[in-house]
Design a protein that fits this description.
With 488 residues, the protein is an alpha/beta fold. The chain has a single domain, classed as TIM Barrel (Alpha-Beta Barrel), CATH 3.20.20. The protein is built from 16 helices and 17 strands. The strands form 5 sheets. An 8-stranded parallel β-barrel has the order 2-3-4-5-6-8-11-14, surrounded by 6 helices. The chain has a 3-stranded mixed beta sheet with strand order 7-9-10, with helices on one face. Helix 4 runs parallel beside helix 6. It is globular. InterPro entries: GH (IPR017853), GH_1_N_CS (IPR033132), Glyco_hydro_1 (IPR001360), Glyco_hydro_1_AS (IPR018120), Glyco_hydro_1_beta-glucosidase (IPR017736). GO terms for molecular function: beta-glucosidase activity. One of its GO terms (cellular component) is cytosol. It is an enzyme of class 3 (hydrolase).
Length: 488
């Protein structure tokens, strides 16, 4: 796909209701019955889908939006597959009303989206852009008008480039600017938004952005990556405190979390170290007010601890109502003397990251639904004070459209298996409140460009037509029934 092939600006060919109806009749086999072995989810369970601003909105130079690090990164030759950018993406900025009607046709009760910081504060700090707030104002009203609860994420990786020019997340000042921006959004939307998610996946933002250079801003500076971790968490704490003081009803933080599994016997220390780097480096400061000792030792060897100031951890450790869980697969490791550190996990010397003999998605990620059950139970055991919500779970497969149909049985099997694992975890005591499938739409998949399709809705990037995949119709019926039929 080329950028010139993505210039259509007209309305979607069908509205959301027609799209969902295409080629499908409503399931008539009745509600799930627990006595028959069917899986029934708790009353009030949240069923949603998730997206992110840079991945779907487009309109990167409209209505006063400033440049983000992803605008600059994606326009840098060699950084994104095929030279793709998010300039147009799914054109959601112009088609949001159709997309909301599509969500309503799927019966979704909630929608997790992200707010683009450079739309709201184009220079990262200073004057607020009213036109940027107007877009999200319209989006929230459209959602509520269709009975869909908005779950905005305030940071999903699109840092204003002006702040990166001043040091980005490696600079302490960025945390304070983030809190100011969060308050600006709350002032406009706080009368209608109940739950606010501060950050999405700070591990990715810090280590893929500042250590490996795979993501924007494309830096390869391990000490900067550890400083970015701390300042992202500090920004979370400052924003959470400010939002709570301003009257926010619920606060959440979304983390990419992965159970770490010993691929070979005798690898317990290796697994514990990677767990500290991947999971507890974020869980423990946010929910315990401290860093794991293993992480502090590694951090000290990569630039020192001078960026952690007195009172920072108290600021980071804000009361949370929900912990957002993004899960895709476990991490498999084994002890391997002499193995160099994985660049994404500084401090992982002597550890080999293994590829298990399991089916994989189009991303090459192992499919392991039981890992999600294990993770949810671990979180409820170790951090019982916070409720859980799955803010992302899904899979990319090589989907092809056949007229009005997109046959994607692999995704249905993936979602079915993971939802059964979710139900098992709930029955075993996990305090899980809801599930957001990733993603509503096929979209700009970061450094992979448009080559990987995660959506339950197919996007034709030439016409921008949306086609609900068979997985979307399957998910619609799960939502309607609030459960899974036995044997499906």
């Amino acid at each position: 796909m080329t950028e010139s092939a993505m210039t259509s600006r007209g309305r979607a060919e069908d509205d959301g209701g027609d799209l969902v109806a295409a080629g499908s009749s409503r399931d008539t086999r009745g509600e799930p019955d627990a006595a028959r072995g069917d899986l029934v989810f708790p009353d009030g369970f949240i069923w949603g889908a998730a997206t992110a601003a840079y991945q779907i909105e487009g309109a990167v130079a409209e209505d006063g939006r400033g440049a983000s690090i992803w605008d600059v990164f994606s326009h840098t030759p060699g950084k994104v597959a095929s030279g793709h950018t998010g300039d147009i993406a799914c054109d959601h900025y112009h088609r949001y009303a159709d997309d909301v009607r599509l969500m309503a046709g799927l019966g979704l009760t909630a929608y997790r989206f992200s707010v683009a910081w450079p739309r709201i504060v184009p220079d990262g700090s200073g004057p607020v852009n009213p036109a940027g707030l107007d877009f999200y104002d319209r989006l929230v009203d459209e959602l509520l008008g269709h009975g869909i609860t908005p779950y905005p994420t305030l940071y999903h990786w699109d840092l204003p480039q002006t702040l990166e020019d001043r040091g980005g997340w490696a600079a302490r000042d960025t945390a304070y600017r983030f809190a100011e921006y969060a308050l600006a959004v709350h002032r406009r939307l706080g009368d209608r938004v109940r739950c606010w998610i501060t950050l999405n996946e700070p591990w990715v933002a810090a280590f893929l952005g500042y250590a490996t250079g795979e993501h924007a801003p494309g830096r390869r500076d391990v000490p900067a990556a550890f400083r970015a971790v701390h300042h992202l968490l500090l920004g979370h704490g400052l924003a959470a405190s400010a939002l709570r003081s301003a009257g926010a009803a619920q606060l959440a933080l979304t983390l990419s979390l992965s159970p770490v599994i010993e691929a070979r016997p005798g690898s317990g220390e290796a697994a514990a170290r990677v767990d500290a780097l991947a999971n507890r480096q974020f869980l423990d400061p946010a929910l315990r007010g401290r860093y794991p000792e293993e992480v502090l030792k590694i951090m000290a060897g990569h630039g020192g601890l001078g960026h952690i100031r007195d009172g920072d951890l108290e600021t980071i450790h804000q009361p949370l109502d929900l912990l957002g869980v993004n899960y895709y697969s476990p991490t498999y490791v084994s002890a391997a003397e002499g193995e160099p550190a994985n660049p994404a996990f500084p401090g992982s010397e002597g550890i080999r990251f293994e590829r298990p003999d399991r089916p994989v998605t189009a991303m090459g990620w192992p499919i392991d639904a039981d890992g999600l059950r294990t993770l949810l139970l671990r979180l409820s055991r170790d951090y019982p004070e916070v409720g859980l919500i799955i803010t992302e779970n899904g899979a990319a497969f090589d989907d092809r459209a056949d007229g009005d149909r997109v046959h994607d049985p692999e995704r249905i099997a993936y979602l079915d298996g993971h939802l059964r694992a979710v139900h098992d975890a709930i029955m075993a005591g996990a305090d899980l409140r809801g599930y957001f499938v990733w993603s509503l739409l096929d979209n700009f998949e970061w450094a992979y460009g448009y080559h990987k399709r995660f959506g339950i809705v197919y996007v034709d990037y030439t016409t921008m037509r949306r086609i609900p995949k068979e997985s979307a119709l399957w998910y619609r019926d799960v939502v309607r029934r609030n459960g899974l039929r036995n044997g499906e």
